[in-house]
Amino acid sequence: MAYEKRFDGRAFEDTREIDAKAGVVKNADGSAWFKIGKTEAIAAVYGPREIYPRFKQNAKEGVLQCFYNMMPFSGMGDRVRPGGNRRSKEISMVITNALKPALDLSEYPNSAIDVFIELPKTDAGSRCASICAAAIALADAGIPMKDVVSAVAVGIVDGTVLVDLDYAEEAFEGEVADIPIAVIPSTGELTLLQMDGRISKDNLIKALELGKQVSLKISEVQKKALKEVYEVQNEN
Prior knowledge:
The chain is 29% helix and 29% strand. It is of the alpha+beta class. It has a single domain (18-235), classed as 2-Layer Sandwich (Ribosomal Protein S5, domain 2), CATH 3.30.230.70. The strands form 2 sheets. The protein has a 5-stranded mixed β-sheet. The longest helix is centred in the C-terminal third of the chain and has 35 residues, at 201-235.
């Protein structure tokens, strides 16, 4: 039987409710909170600063380092083991690679820009929420960017193309493909494309086009968060 109605009642092209704030971590150079549905990500940027160990230095540009961490009781399933693990390292690398194409790090040779991302609550879409939070935080820190990178998962559930799969949809017993993407909204450039599951070429193209359209809406939420924090600063 085809997936004709989403478990939470959303239209297939709708995301869960989205909210974002910038400047949420007092002692960071830039920070942000991003929420989509029940998934929350907090990102804090420190730097540019001296990089250790020194062999990581790049004389031509700064080095972006992202660190992703799910808190022990953040997930929908079993308790997450604290500390680094293979999954967190892999997602940290994915986030770094998704953000780098939008950044101009040439002003910061031999320096590091560190982005620490904590997830207190997750219900699918954690890497996409992390990218969105990190992008806002980097802009809040004043790092030169082409645009604020936006990310969302697209895919299919039992033959139906949709956007922003939640945990129940990812765990659906039928045919499921989960495809996290990240986009530079102003250019349409994809900086992340991953896939878990199978999908036809036609449905993949449809899903990617849907994701690009949704990224524009997410971008507006991100930019609104930045605008609000700077309006408060100017008032003070």
